[in-house]
Predict the 3D structure of the following.
Amino acid sequence: MNNPNTVALFWLTTAAGAVLFVAFQLFFYVNDFVRAHGATPAITFEPDVLWMFSAFYGCWIVTVLLALIGTRKAQWVALVFGSLLVVLNTLGGISDGLRDGWHIAFSAVFFITLPGVLAIAATWRRIKTQGKW
């Protein structure tokens, strides 16, 4: 566990899980739209909102890059920033799941929270082994 690449791999797995969650959520929506023969209201976004989605999910790479740096300070920033992303993505997925169905909420917990908790634990272990407080 002394290799910073291990911690970065945990965060990269969580980032990939967030991307999988968004892809599945879009597939579920399109499936419902097709099943209802276009009767469900179409979701449209302004360009500014679409930009914010890509910026929000793009923030995952920052956590991975911070973990790759490997210094104690970078690990702390990765831990705090990554934990915040895990919490926000999980809450967003659960709220979408309350609206769209339990399968969305389950996907958020499975693809984001589970690897996120493991990444948080790995980062914390790495910080503890790097030296004194």
Remarks:
- Helices lie at 4-35, 47-58, 60-69, 72-100, 102-129.
- The chain has five helices and no strands.
- The first helix runs from residue 4 to 35.
- The mean pLDDT is 88.
